[in-house]
Amino acid sequence: MSADKFEKWFSEQLLPNIEPGSVIVMDNASYHSRQKERAPTTTWRKKDIQDWLDERGLQYDDDLRKPELVQLVKSLHLPKKYVIDELAAEKGHQILRLPPYHCDLNPIELIWSQLKGLMRQRNQGGRLEALEKLLVQCTEDITPQLWESCCRHVTDLENDYWRKDGLLDDLDPVVVNIGSDSEDSDDDDDDDDDDDDDQTE
Predict the structure, then answer these.
(1) pLDDT digits (tens, 9 = 90+) for 90-106
(2) CA distance 94 to 125
(3) Among the four residues 16, 73, 111, 172, which has the most C-beta atoms within 10 Å?
(4) What mean pLDDT do residues 40-50 have?
(5) Inside any domain, residue 97
(6) Average pLDDT, the chain
(7) For every residue of the chain, which 3-state class applies, written as one string?
(8) Where are the stretches annotated Disordered (predicted)?
(9) pLDDT tens digits for 167-176?
(10) How many domains would you assign to the chain?
(11) Could you tell me if residue 153 is inside a domain?
């Protein structure tokens, strides 16, 4: 899937067919996350970074080297603006982006799993025409009650993550001093005793 194809489907198929003011849950797949405007990185030429800063009226010292210019851009902490988010906002919808690596917080993953399971159970021949009909039938078996159950499961999971996150906040830090250990201390004491013996002779 490419960003162009996804954005076309999103604009022409999804947005016109959902309830006004919908919240659309989105993961971080690259084709969901094309930025409207990318900030300069180390792959940019120095002149392009300077032009980018100039276009925004941002001050910088002409003597700065490329890594310093990139660091200056990073220090601005510019929010990322995604094409999909803006397409949704234009139609009065909102995008809710999942944290990276947390597809388990998206109820659609549970629905896809159910749908694929139904397809496996009922697939007889595998011919394309038959599969298309079977897909429609299996999709119709995904009930509002199943959706509600999947959403409730995700809400419970999210609450569990919040609870565990709170537990981590309450933990005292564990500090391990790697500069000394008990054997070193004992050796130091023995050395002191040897010094005393030397002085008495």
Answers:
(1) 999 999 999 888 989 99
(2) 41
(3) 73
(4) 92
(5) no
(6) 86
(7) CCHHHHHHHHHHHHHHHCCCCCEEEECCCHHHCCECCCCCCCCCCHHHHHHHHHHCCCCCCCCCCHHHHHHHHHHCCCCCCEHHHHHHHHCCCEEEECCCCCHHHCHHHHHHHHHHHHHHHHCCCCCHHHHHHHHHHHHHCCCHHHHHHHHHHHHHHHHHHHHHHHHHHHCCCCCCCCCCCHHHHHHHHHHHHHHHHHHHC
(8) 176-201
(9) 777 777 777 8
(10) 1
(11) yes
Structure tokens at 73: 């851009």
Return the closest-CA partner of residue 28 out of 132, 106, 101.
Answer: 101
- At 99, give phi and psi (nearest 5°): -65, 150
Domain range for 161? 102-171
Q: Are 64 and 72 in contact (CB under 8 A)?
A: yes
Mean pLDDT, to the nearest integer, of 2-17?
94
**Is 134 inside any structural domain?**
yes
Place of tokens 């919808």: 93
Per the structure block, which two tokens stand in for 155? 């809400």
Task: Tell me if 149 is assigned to some domain.
Answer: yes
Q: How confident is the model at residue 165 (pLDDT cuts 50, 70, 90)?
A: confident
